[in-house]
Amino acid sequence: MERDQPENISEEKDYLQAYIGELETKQSNILWEDAHRNNRGVDKLLWKGDENAPLVQRIGIAVFGFMFLLCGLGLATIGYDQHAPFIYLIAAFSGFIAVRLFFNAVRGLRKSKDR
User: Fold this and answer.
1) What digits encode the pLDDT tens for the residues 14-63?
2) What is the DSSP string of 43-90?
3) Roughly how many angstroms between the first and final C-alpha of the chain, as a whole number?
4) Please, is 42 exposed, middle or buried when counting C-beta atoms within 10 Å of its C-beta (0-12, 13-18, 19+)?
5) Transmembrane ranges (predicted)?
6) Taking the domains of the chain in order of start, what are their residue ranges?
């Protein structure tokens, strides 16, 4: 019923080795498949948001959204000066991305403050 100490240490070493191996495979971005696997987490955070995201990641998403907002406003100004309606479409798309990123930056913020 009671485990021997060496078996417990052996199991712990095996778990630690497996964990280190998993971390090394996740951090190697040499091959296309590795980079693609690691980018999934970033894409999910940007487009779907995460209720458990730390404040630093939320600020990064907001800064990224602010960049899209500035690009959209700049394009809208150029479209107004040039009387080009196509540029308004690009500016609207940039604004949509900015709003979505801002929304994802604050998603779950109230829940994390309540904890």
Assistant:
1) 888 888 888 877 776 666 776 777 677 778 888 888 888 888 988 999 99
2) HHHHHH--TT--HHHHHHHHHHHHHHHHHHHHHHHHHHHHT-HHHHHH
3) 39
4) exposed
5) 59-80, 86-106
6) 5-114
